[in-house]
Design goal:
Layout: H1 10-22, H2 32-39, H3 44-49, E1 66-70, H4 72-80, H5 83-107, E2 116-120, H6 128-140, E3 145-149, E4 164-165, H7 182-186, E5 195-199, E6 201-202, H8 205-214, E7 220-224, E8 231-235, E9 244-248, E10 255-259, E11 265-269, E12 274-278, E13 285-289, H9 296-303, E14 312-316, H10 324-333, E15 341-348, H11 358-362, E16 369-376, E17 400-404, H12 410-422, E18 428-432, H13 444-462, E19 471-474
Parallel strand pairs: 1-2, 2-3, 3-5, 4-6, 5-7, 7-9, 8-10, 9-11, 10-12, 11-13, 13-14, 14-15, 15-16, 16-17, 17-18, 18-19
Length: 475
């Protein structure tokens, strides 16, 4: 006699079906090209860890086109170590970083194109042989974005003379050292380069001009802290795709000449130099900082003809006190009639008035967004009355105000009150009490405790001063 057929409820059937499908590895049945594409969204270390999943995954990561050697994790332990152990531990971590890059490149499939090649660790000229090989590897892989960031993030003393020097001879076929890998050396190709960043790398103007003339797709060039950079000439005829230039803290720089260029963005941070900008009609975004901000005459000398065309202007004031006299010079000399966004960074050293910044707003009649970034540097509270500007100015188009690094000082409150009283179309104020340049992990708990205290003070200070329809957001 046959037994009764067992019946299952819909719930039980669904559960059994789910269990059966849960064992199916649907990811691994995807084609290799799609899996490599997915891996390219992971960090390099995360991508290499997938090699332990199965034999199918063992070498998939070696085809990823993005090689981002970010050494930040290696530096964390150094940053948290005792001062007497710091140098010894740093040398150990630096060796580990070099070995990591060498290991990855030994396994990476060199016949695949390299979309992105990034190095981030405070290396110097001691490692010039290894770095040279890595750069050749990237260039032979038809790299599109090349970043050499050897910035010192952990305050160990190091000068220009210790910086790695970019090997200009590498760019010239008759000067290359091919002893390490003839195939890679002979296949170096600059044609695909779209972006170059060099930080704490000694690179000459001659080398940069070579890239500009021989990389038809190059759009972005950024150089910081280079001792060798003394002059730079850019012409639109030699670099038709070039759109973004950044030069920061290159203290031996004497002259920059840009003519007949499609340049859209310019960043310059440093002292006043012989800077020529001619026939750059598409320049709409500019950042200036460093010693050039001490005197408005220097900024006007550089940008007077271009300020009326700018849409975004960022200025990082070097002096802790922004004076009425200096900002009035710009306000009276030029009208930034196209400016939509103004970003100003100031030092929060003492409770100096921020009201002189309103001259910059007055010079921008169509301004829609105003951003202030206050860099905490021992911010002090000084008991004083809130001042007001005697003349009344109406900012017709200003809709959004953002204040980063708001500490609750009287100078900051003065500026907020003035803007609330004079902005006709104001819609939103965003206040962020966190430090603009947050310290490292060593002081994380202290910083977070101070930020919590500041946030409570800011809420108490502003909640009754901002009324609808204006929206106040405190981050």
């Amino acid at each position: 006699m046959m037994g009764k057929r067992q019946r299952f409820s819909r719930t039980e059937k669904g559960a059994k079906c789910a269990d059966r499908h849960s064992y199916v590895d649907r990811l691994s049945v995807l084609p290799d090209d799609l899996l490599v594409y997915i891996l390219s969204f992971l960090s390099l270390k995360e991508a290499t860890m997938t090699s332990i999943l199965s034999s199918r995954w063992r070498y998939l990561w070696t085809f990823i086109p993005k090689l981002d050697f970010n050494g930040k994790e290696l530096l964390v332990e150094v940053e948290l170590s005792e001062e007497k152990r710091e140098v010894k531990l740093f040398k150990k971590k630096r060796l580990a970083y070099v070995e990591w890059v060498n290991h990855v490149l030994a396994l990476h499939k060199y016949n695949s194109n390299v979309e992105e090649f990034k190095l981030f660790f405070p290396l110097d000229k001691v490692h010039k042989k290894s770095i040279g090989k890595w750069i050749q590897y990237a260039l032979a892989g038809k790299v599109q974005r090349l970043e050499l960031n050897f910035a010192n993030t952990i305050c160990l003393r190091r000068g220009y003379v210790q910086y790695y020097t970019f090997p200009y001879q590498l760019l010239r076929s008759d000067k290359r050292d091919c002893s390490w890998d003839t195939r890679r050396c002979n296949s170096i190709d600059f044609k695909c380069l779209k972006s170059i960043l060099m930080k704490c790398v000694n690179v000459s103007g001659e080398a940069l001009e070579f890239f500009l003339c021989n990389c038809p797709l190059l759009e972005n060039l950024s150089v910081s802290e280079s001792r060798q950079l003394t002059s730079l000439r850019i012409s639109g005829s030699s670099s038709p795709s070039f759109k973004r230039l950044g030069i920061s803290n290159c203290h031996n720089l004497v002259s920059v000449e840009i003519r007949d260029s499609n340049l859209v963005y310019l960043k310059y941070k440093g002292r006043a130099i012989n800077f020529i900008l001619e026939d750059v009609p598409q320049l709409v975004k500019v950042f200036v900082g460093g010693m050039i901000t001490r005197h408005m005459e220097d900024i006007l000398l550089l940008l007077s003809r271009h300020l009326p065309l700018l849409e975004i202007f960022k200025i990082d004031f070097m002096e802790p006190k922004v004076s009425w006299e200096e900002t009035e010079k710009l306000c009276s000399a030029v009208t930034m009639s196209n400016l939509k966004q103004l970003v100003v960074k100031v030092d929060a050293y003492k409770d100096y008035s921020l009201l002189p910044l309103t001259n910059l707003i007055r010079a921008s009649p169509c301004l829609q967004r105003f951003v202030v970034k206050a860099d905490w540097f021992e911010p002090k509270f000084i008991k004083k009355k809130v001042k007001k500007i005697t003349k009344s100015y109406k900012y017709v188009h200003l809709k959004e105000i953002e204040f980063a690094g708001y500490y609750g000082r009287i100078s900051e409150l003065e500026l907020i009150i003035h803007l609330l009283e004079n902005c006709v179309s104001l819609e939103k104020i965003t206040v962020d009490p966190r430090d603009v340049d947050r310290p490292g992990l060593l002081y994380k708990e202290e910083v977070e405790a101070e930020e919590k205290e500041v946030r409570a003070r800011v809420v108490n200070q502003l909640r009754n001063k901002v009324a609808p329809p204006v929206i106040l957001t405190i981050i």
